[in-house]
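Thread amino acids onto this structure.
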């Protein structure tokens, strides 16, 4: 995930065989006069790497809508009688991909919502404006690396060294009071999303031991650990080496804190799927379980699932990917219920972009733009679709060209700002996290209670 873009000063360093990476977490000492929060809240970002084709995640079920979808999608169209039916609060009928069984149940129980046609924008953009003034659009549209960075940073023009999750932690990290454990954690390696100006994430490899391995309580072992600590504390005179040493030192401390907190915690009874995303969300649930021991009342997590670059064999690939996504989301929500925190945790998806409604010649689709996303949690205004569903017409009012690349009607800034408001970000600090938010008519899309 673009390691070279972050550099050693911004990344966690994996400790030993495993597993905890440290970070620089200076934030929290900057707001000494601000009282910590006493209500727990967590955001869990699930990034779908490769560009999820959300045209097959949710499909219109009305006659005209499905007919347009089927005619354009051709061999990639899902049969109408296989779709899992849902009805929005306004009575509109849609169908979810056949593998999204738990997603359908969560939607019907009003614990999950869908947000339509979200994407990177600098300001609201019409088809005519995009075609006649391309400089108004985000840079390097349809590029994986650039759009991943823009989604994670919410900066659609120009490079960013921080992510919106990191900037959010900068602003609200004081709510964790005197806790020395980081506000942010990635269970999917280094991520721009979790890099702030002051805040840094700690990184855990799911299922791996925490901290440096090969040490015990014997005198010889403790002597070796003391030697490692002294070496890391030496001033080499080289800035990069010093920064790497500080990062490693912090990683060792974070590992000890998390290991101590988890020691003796009862095993979760919820069964998670044995999959990449299932393992990540299980690790997140285990950290949430020990939140009080860590002293955190605000936490931000980054997870991911790859494989969504479906230029070929899309139907089979999406069956597998959506099964993993659905089973993992379902298990995670059940774990939140087990921990009695389902109203305190909100999970949401991001992705590079959606894909063209028109298929290519290889049984797949090509890179597009606006996409539909899932938001799940007990405080989500579930059972509804927020935003405007695009008109499914090639060259139509929402198409950036003639292949079904939807110009977003909702900006990533608005999507993130709505989540951040629920998380506790004051509205007067919106621009510190989302610099372009003032360009859009609303900073609250209304999908959070």
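Threaded sequence (449 positions):
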């Amino acid at each position: 995930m673009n390691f070279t873009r972050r550099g050693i000063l911004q990344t966690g360093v994996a400790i030993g065989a495993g597993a905890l990476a440290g970070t620089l977490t200076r934030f929290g000492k900057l707001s000494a006069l601000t009282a910590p929060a006493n209500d727990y809240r967590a955001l869990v970002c699930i990034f779908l790497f490769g560009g999820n084709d959300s045209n097959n995640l949710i499909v219109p079920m009305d006659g005209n809508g499905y007919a347009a979808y089927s005619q354009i999608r051709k061999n990639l169209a899902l049969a109408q009688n296989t779709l899992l039916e849902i009805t929005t609060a306004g009575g509109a009928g849609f169908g979810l991909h056949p593998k999204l069984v738990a997603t359908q149940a969560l939607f019907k129980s009003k614990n999950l919502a869908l947000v339509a046609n979200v994407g990177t924008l600098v300001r609201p953009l019409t088809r005519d404006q995009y075609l006649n003034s391309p400089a108004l659009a985000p840079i390097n549209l349809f590029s994986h690396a650039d759009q991943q960075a823009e989604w994670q940073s919410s900066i659609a023009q120009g490079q960013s060294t921080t992510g919106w999750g990191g900037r959010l932690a900068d602003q609200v990290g004081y709510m964790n009071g005197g806790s020395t454990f980081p506000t942010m954690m990635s269970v999917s390696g280094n991520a721009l999303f979790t890099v702030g100006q002051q805040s840094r994430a700690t990184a855990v490899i799911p299922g791996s031991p925490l901290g440096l391995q090969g040490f015990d309580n014997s005198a010889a072992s403790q002597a070796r650990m003391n030697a490692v600590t002294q070496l890391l504390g030496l001033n080499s005179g080289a800035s990069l080496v010093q920064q790497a040493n500080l990062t490693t030192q912090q990683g060792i401390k974070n590992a000890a804190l998390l290991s101590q907190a988890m020691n003796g915690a009862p095993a979760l009874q919820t069964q998670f799927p044995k999959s990449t995303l299932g393992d990540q969300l299980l690790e997140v649930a285990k950290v949430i379980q020990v939140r009080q021991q860590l002293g955190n009342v605000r936490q931000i997590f980054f997870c991911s699932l790859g494989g969504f670059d479906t230029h070929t064999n899309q139907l089979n690939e999406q069956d597998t990917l959506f099964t993993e996504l659905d089973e993992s989301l379902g298990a995670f929500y059940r774990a939140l219920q087990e921990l009695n925190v389902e109203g305190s945790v909100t999970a949401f998806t991001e992705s590079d972009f959606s894909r063209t409604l028109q298929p290519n010649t290889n049984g797949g689709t090509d890179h597009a733009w606006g996409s539909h996303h899932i938001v799940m949690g007990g405080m989500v205004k579930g059972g509804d679709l927020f935003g405007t569903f695009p008109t499914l017409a090639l060259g139509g009012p929402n198409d950036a060209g003639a292949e079904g690349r939807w110009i977003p009607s909702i900006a990533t800034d608005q999507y993130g700002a709505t989540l951040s408001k629920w998380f506790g970000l004051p509205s007067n600090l919106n621009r510190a996290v989302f610099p372009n938010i003032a360009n859009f008519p609303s900073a609250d899309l209304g999908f959070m209670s």
